[in-house]
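Example 9 (inverse folding). The structure is encoded as follows.
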């Protein structure tokens, strides 16, 4: 059922404030970019359409601020990031409402994102204090090897629309902790949260100018301009594999250190010996979180024949219970998808699967109401040739296929060029580990549909990316190792 409650004026006053911050940062932009509320299709704000001149000015400002920032002590940077954590948490209602409004996730999930995003800031505030240099004797004697970790330098961060706050802090926090200046380019669909978070960081003590926000319709001109600038030393991108590949080509010219968090096609395997209720509940989380729009979403749900009917029934019942509506309405548990293209893509994928023989258990339609809504959908018996098996769905559509043996399940699961996340549900510990080890993915949830955690290395293999975010590895992505070779002579 679609709740059509109008957006409340919860955050409208601050949207004007955000707009004026945006306008004040870099002058001479080429017009503005409207930001739409996907639940109502209303324009809720505008942000500047920055030019490449603006982008290069941002590089100059962030580079010069970054060089000073890189000389500060880890304790100084840590203290400011701790203050930023507290300020983000104090601002949680404002941030959550803005995320829901510009991106469309239900308010409760937006609150979850604020905590998740803030946790990255706290995590890297702590992690930078650990220090990671080394001291060792050369094996043949005669010298001592000393290693240090310094900031990699000016970092360009390109973030997606699906987690406008968490993907920003997952990159900004380690960059700042390591001592780098930042130029961040958020998706034009959801730029407001980035402007707001940068304002909050500055209020908490991050020096003005250290984090520059660039918003532009012309992403390729931006990338070409900044990634060929020799001052830029780091690129971190979250988005699609084709765009990541193009960015890597540009970054290759100046040998820029690059982290890529790219597309996924996560298999979720449910074996006959799984805990049925847990598997269905966690599959809902892995599939429907964020309105189905995460790169770790369960894209292909593969269920063993013996449990399949019961699992499909349980998942269908839970899917029917979702309440589609305006994300600011507290009763809503499923919001809109991001734009009209997403609605069209989902309709095509569902229709193609049904035409090729899949069974529609629930949903499948576009409600007749304003906003970019798509019903929560369960498709069963997906044939191997359906487009949905090889496409990142990025929406609330559960695509279920069946298998008979463990070997078949692993073969189907790995039959993709992507390798971000996978999930396995079984009560047999040996099977859980054997299957988890066999999955060609960077991350595996075992009896668990939620794998995201600031302390864990988030990232993929194959065409799903390079590098890791979060954990200690997420900090190293913004550091360079340097070693000193100290000649040793006998003191006698
Ligand atoms: C993503 O979809 O890119 C990130 C998901 C997450 O951090 O959980």
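The amino acid assigned to each position is listed next.
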């Amino acid at each position: 059922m679609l709740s059509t409650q109008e957006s409340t004026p919860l955050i409208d006053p601050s949207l004007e404030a955000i707009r004026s911050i945006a306008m004040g940062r870099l002058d001479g932009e080429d017009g503005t970019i409207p930001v739409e509320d996907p639940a109502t299709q209303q324009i809720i704000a505008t942000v500047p359409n920055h030019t490449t001149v603006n982008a290069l000015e941002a590089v100059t400002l962030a580079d010069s601020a970054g060089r000073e920032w890189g000389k500060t002590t880890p304790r100084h940077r840590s203290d400011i990031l701790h203050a930023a954590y507290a300020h983000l948490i104090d601002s949680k209602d404002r941030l959550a409402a803005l995320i829901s409004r510009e991106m469309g996730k239900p308010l409760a999930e937006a609150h979850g994102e604020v905590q998740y995003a803030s946790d990255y800031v706290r995590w890297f505030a702590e992690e930078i204090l650990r220090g990671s240099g080394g001291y060792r004797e050369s094996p043949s004697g005669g010298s001592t090897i000393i290693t240090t970790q310094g900031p990699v330098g000016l970092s360009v961060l390109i973030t997606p629309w699906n987690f406008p706050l968490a993907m920003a802090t997952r990159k900004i926090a380690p960059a700042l902790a390591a001592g780098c200046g930042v130029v961040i380019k958020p998706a034009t669909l959801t730029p407001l949260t980035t402007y707001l978070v940068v304002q909050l960081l500055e209020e908490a003590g991050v020096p003005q100018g250290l984090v520059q926000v660039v918003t532009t319709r012309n992403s390729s001109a931006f990338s070409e301009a900044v990634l060929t600038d020799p001052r830029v030393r780091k690129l971190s991108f979250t988005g699609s594999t084709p765009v990541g590949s193009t960015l890597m080509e540009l970054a290759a010219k100046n040998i820029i250190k690059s982290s890529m968090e790219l597309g996924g096609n996560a298999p979720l395997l449910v074996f006959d010996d799984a805990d049925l209720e847990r598997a269905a509940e966690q599959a809902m989380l892995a599939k429907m979180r964020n309105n189905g729009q995460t790169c770790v979403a369960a894209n292909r749900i593969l269920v063993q024949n013996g449990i399949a009917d019961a699992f499909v029934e349980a998942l269908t019942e839970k899917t029917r219970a979702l309440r589609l509506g305006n994300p600011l309405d507290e009763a809503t548990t499923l919001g809109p998808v991001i734009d009209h293209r997403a609605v069209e893509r989902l309709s095509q994928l569902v229709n193609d699967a049904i035409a090729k023989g899949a069974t529609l258990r629930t949903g499948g339609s576009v409600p007749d109401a304003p906003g970019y809504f798509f019903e929560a959908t369960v498709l069963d018996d997906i044939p191997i040739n359906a487009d949905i098996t090889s496409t990142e769905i990025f929406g609330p559509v559960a695509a279920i296929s069946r298998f008979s043996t463990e070997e078949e399940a692993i073969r189907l699961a790995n039959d993709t060029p992507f390798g971000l996340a996978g999930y396995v549900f079984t009560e047999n510990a040996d099977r859980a580990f054997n299957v988890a080890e066999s999955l060609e993915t960077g991350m595996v949830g075992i009896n668990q549909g939620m794998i995201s955690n600031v302390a864990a290395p988030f990232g993929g293999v194959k065409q799903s990316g390079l590098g890791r975010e979060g954990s200690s590895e997420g900090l190293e992505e913004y550091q360079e190792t340097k070693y000193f070779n100290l000649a040793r002579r006998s003191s006698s």
